Amino acid sequence: MNSIEKVLWILNRLGEEPYELNLTTLANEMNTVKSGVHKTLGIMMKQGFIIQNPETKKYSVGPALYRLGKVYDNRVGIWGITKPIIMEVAEITQETISIGIREGDHAILAYKIDSTLPVRYVEDIGIKYPMNGSAIGKVLAAYHDTERVKELLNATKFIKHTPNSIVEPEAILQEYQKIRDQGYAISDEERFLESFGIAVPIMNDHKNVWSCLCITGPKVRFTSEKINSWIQLLKSKANEISILLA
């Protein structure tokens, strides 16, 4: 098989039971050496087409496939599962509610329901968020592979968009630890002035995080009382989504 055939074979194979396979099994079924398959898997992981369970070392299809398939969106995928839930959250809060996913090393806005209020927070589907200055970007980075995150932080020169922007790698790592400890991320005017966001992780059945539930809007509407209430609401709804996805 050539390189393209290998990629397509792997994607098709991981779309069949048991939906997770390790390197040895894939190489044996492809009747090829493990080194070549490992290289192909590495490229596919980098692009977000597959993911690897850090505990079992098995590979499965990744979040990049969600964004490529409108059919998936319209049928049984995460949007079909989450839409009623985020519509409920949007109705309760009256703010913009979104689902962020991680594709490789990038945090992506996958789905959203915009606030109907005259002044609201609006961004385009598919936008990539920085890992230091957005609720979605920070929460997905906080639960990403630690060593890979350190590599990215050391290789990236962050822009201080506002006085609240966190740009030093050590400070960002401390922020990630805080996020993991409390179970949510807050972005308080870190990308844009007068904006506020809260994101909570959505875990799959392996307790891995590659998606999150987020609320964003003008900071003036995010009172202390609402922030505390909405954090609990998001956590509850993210848990519902996790159960449905499992």
Automatic annotation (TrEMBL):
GO molecular function, one term: DNA-binding transcription factor activity
GO biological process, one term: negative regulation of DNA-templated transcription
Domain IclR-ED: 64-246
Residues in HTH iclR-type domain copies: 1-63
SUPFAM superfamilies: GAF domain-like, Winged helix' DNA-binding domain
SMART domains on file: HTH_ICLR
Keywords in alphabetical order: DNA-binding, Transcription, Transcription regulation
UniProt key word DNA-binding: yes
Cited Pfam families: IclR_C
Source species of the chain: Desulforamulus aeronauticus DSM 10349
Listed PROSITE patterns: HTH_ICLR, ICLR_ED
This protein's name: Transcriptional regulator, IclR family
InterPro entries assigned: GAF-like_dom_sf, HTH_MetabolicPath_Reg, Tscrpt_reg_IclR_C, Tscrpt_reg_IclR_N, WH-like_DNA-bd_sf, WH_DNA-bd_sf
